[in-house]
Amino acid sequence: MTKITIRPATPADVETILSFIKGLAAFEREPEAVKTTVDDLLRDGFGEHRKFEALIAELDRQPVGFALFFPTYSTWEGHPGIHLEDIFVVEQARGQGVGRKLMAALAAIAVARGSARLELSVLHWNPAREFYHHLGMWHLGEWLPYRLSGEALRTLAAEADTL
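User: That's the sequence. What structure does it adopt?
Assistant: C-alpha cells below.
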C-alpha cells in the first residue's frame, strides 16, 4: 500500500522544488520560461523576509509533487486568504490522490489561519480544471486576469514619485 505524506518544504528541498517548477513549465508548454534559481527559492522561501511557503508531497517517502503558495488579503471579507501559485504532481503519481492531499493540506492551513479564501489560476485547457470543480472550487467567469511585467512594469514605475 502506498502512503502519501504532505509536509512543509525545507531549504533542503529547493532543488526538488525547482525541478517541479520546471516540470510544471514543461506541462504548461513553456519549458524555457523558468528563470528561477535555487538561490531565488532559498532567499524568498526560507530567508528572513519569506515571500512564499511550499508543501512537498511524498509517495512512499519519495517527493512526487509540491504546492507553492503565499498570503493574500480580501478587503471585502476583511480576512486574509491564500493564493496557490503552483501545484504539480509528477505524471507517474497522478491519479493516486496526491493532488487532493495537497489541496486538503492547503485548505487546512487556510482554515487554521482564518483565511476567507483559497484561490488559484489555471490555464483554460488544463484538465485539472475538472479536479478543482470536483473539490468545490468555481471559475470566476466575470474576472479577467491582467499582468504587468518586464519593460511595461519598469516604464510605469519610472513615472512614480519616490516612495
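The helical segments are 14-27, 38-46, 98-112, 128-135, 150-158.
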